[in-house]
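Researcher: Good morning. I'm working through a list of sequences from a screen, and I'd like to move beyond sequence-only analysis. For each chain I'm collecting a predicted structure so we can compare shapes side by side. This is the next one on the list. No need for commentary yet; just the structure.
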Amino acid sequence: MCLVSLILLLTAGLISFTTPQNSFGDQILAYTVDTKTQDLKLYWKNDRGENFGSITNLKNYVESKNLTLTFAMNGGMYMQDLTPLGLFIQNGKTQKKLNKTEGNGNFYLKPNGVFYITTDNIPFICTTADFADNRKIKYATQSGPMLVLDGKIHSAFKEGSTNLNIRNGVGILPNNKVIFAISKTEINFYDFAQYFQQLGCKYALYLDGFVSRMYLPEKQWTQTDGNFGVIIGVTTKQKNGSR
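Model: Good morning. Structure tokens for this chain:
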């Protein structure tokens, strides 16, 4: 009996040590995407060259194509006219070039970075300095700062910081799936980055702040407003063309 109890205790200890634990409870809402099996795209303008702006407009657009929007979230910082502030690649075409300039604000807090998906549907996050367009990139959006870099939290973030805001970001999980997350309440950079770190993300990228929205009807979270540049969306085909 003693031997069995010891084995059980050791096994439980091993499981608790090897399984990533997350202490954020209901503070953060997240959605995981397998880019190999799910249809994830980056959107900016519709067929008429008009900015989508809101998630509502994107939802209406994909439904007109007999698709159902299952997830959406703003995908990077933008200028006043809704032009992406940094790199934007859509369907293999560069719509906005990589931004390597210096400036003020979160986007320019180095290292900043790029989230992209290859033509083989493999997701990556890298620093702006490390990004190289090999002509095999299907989608890309640039933002900043990096949240997690090589498994470490950005050195500029301070534990216990009172710089609180709604925040959203993206990370690459150890199984190479993509996790998108938004805070339900105001959170500082350090804690938000720690969320991705605890999940085992070696790389994670900040997307935006208080303007952020997420549409995730499967979890009863349906924010459809906003006035964005890039929007990230996942769609499925409608059955029998019904909405």
